[in-house]
């Protein structure tokens, strides 16, 4: 197999899993480790990947990746996290689900919950849960972000402040090594902060790829979160810090 044939598949694996490893790609393509290292070096030089120890990840930056690409990225891991998150959401409660493909996955796992009030600024979440007859859905209103069906802005924030939620579930674009939760859109950050401020129990759903990216705007710290759902163990230092913060970390690996 030539390099030009390998490159698109390498990038697709990186989008799906969040990263690629030299060893896995070598086995997958049946070529030497040295050959894969050259491939990754070429893709890194072209700005398509960023090299990390043992492999490569999608490039970080100040621009978010597209919605459909985010939806495909680590889909199995998102489903596993979403199931764990849904298991922590009781019936007969008020929940906020915000923008993001991970929160959409949580919505899909709430299809059999009963007597839920779900408030959301995510049109995709509203459409998913409209199929659950035992779920009342309230959409906040606001400025529609056509790229992903998100509602943002002052109208959204004002609507959120009219409620108090038993549980608020948010996603994010990135998590820094010190535990700061980050995003790209300042207006979305304001909405996420309002959700956390109005929620009795605060939950974050974010897969391991969020540790491999960066974003410029700070939402909060993991120390402000009650339960953090992810699909790979966090670093020892961050795990210790979460323990000190009394932030529960739930790791739910995908099958296969």
Structural commentary:
- With 256 residues, the chain is α/β, with parallel strands linked by helices.
- It has 2 domains: 3-57, Arc Repressor Mutant, subunit A (Orthogonal Bundle), CATH 1.10.10.10; 67-251, Rossmann fold.
- Helix content is 39%, strand content 24%.
- It is built from 10 helices and 15 strands.
- It has helices spanning 3-17, 22-29, 33-45, 67-72, 75-87, 101-108, 123-129, 154-160, 186-197, 236-245; strands at residues 19-21, 50-52, 55-57, 94-97, 116-120, 135-139, 143-145, 150-152, 165-170, 174-175, 180-183, 199-205, 217-221, 227-230, 248-251.
- The strands form 4 sheets. The protein has a 7-stranded parallel beta sheet with strand order 6-5-4-9-12-14-15, with helices on both faces. A 3-stranded antiparallel beta sheet has the order 1-3-2.
- 39% of the residues are buried.
- The model has no long low-confidence stretch (mean pLDDT 89).
Write a short abstract of this structure:
It holds the Pfam family DeoRC. This protein is an alpha/beta fold. The chain contains 10 helices and 15 strands.
- Which range best describes the helical content: under 10%, 10-25%, 25-40%, 40-55%, 55-70% or over 70%? 25-40%
Structural class: alpha/beta
Q: Rounded to an integer, what's the Rg over CA atoms?
A: 19 Å
* Broad CATH class of the largest domain: Alpha Beta
Mean residue pLDDT: 89
Please tell me the CATH architecture of the largest domain by its name.
Answer: 3-Layer(aba) Sandwich
Order of helices and strands: HEHHEEHHEHEHEEEHEEEHEEEHE
Q: What fraction of residues sit in β-strands?
A: 15-25%
Counted beta strands: 15
Secondary structure tally, helices: 10
Strand order of the largest sheet: 6-5-4-9-12-14-15
Amino-to-carboxy terminus distance: 26 Å
Number of domains: 2
**CATH topological fold name of the largest domain:** Rossmann fold
GO molecular function: DNA-binding transcription factor activity
Keywords: Repressor, Transcription, Transcription regulation
Pfam families: DeoRC (PF00455), HTH_DeoR (PF08220)
Domain HTH deoR-type: 3-58
């Amino acid at each position: 197999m030539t390099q030009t044939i390998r490159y698109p598949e390498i990038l697709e694996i990186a989008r799906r899993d969040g990263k690629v490893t030299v060893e896995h790609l070598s086995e997958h393509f049946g070529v030497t480790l040295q050959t894969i290292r050259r491939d990754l070096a070429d893709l890194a030089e072209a700005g398509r990947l960023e090299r990390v120890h043992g492999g490569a990840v999608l490039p970080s930056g100040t621009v978010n990746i597209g919605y459909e690409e985010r939806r495909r990225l680590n889909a199995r891991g998102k489903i596993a996290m979403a199931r764990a998150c849904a298991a922590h959401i009781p019936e007969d409660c008020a929940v906020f689900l915000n923008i993001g493909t991970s929160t959409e996955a949580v919505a899909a796992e709430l299809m059999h919950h009963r007597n839920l009030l779900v408030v959301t600024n995510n049109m995709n979440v509203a459409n998913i849960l409209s199929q659950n007859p035992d779920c009342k859905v309230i959409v906040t209103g606001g400025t529609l972000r056509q790229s992903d069906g998100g509602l943002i802005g002052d109208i959204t924030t004002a609507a959120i402040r009219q409620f108090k939620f038993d549980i608020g579930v948010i996603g994010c674009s990135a998590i820094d090594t010190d535990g700061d939760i980050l995003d790209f859109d300042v207006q979305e950050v304001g909405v996420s902060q309002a959700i956390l401020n109005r929620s009795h129990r605060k939950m974050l759903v974010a897969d391991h790829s969020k540790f491999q990216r960066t974003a410029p705007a700070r939402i909060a710290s993991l120390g402000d979160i009650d339960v953090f759902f992810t699909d790979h163990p966090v670093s020892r230092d961050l795990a210790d810090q979460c323990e000190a913060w009394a932030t529960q970390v739930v790791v739910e690996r995908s099958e296969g």
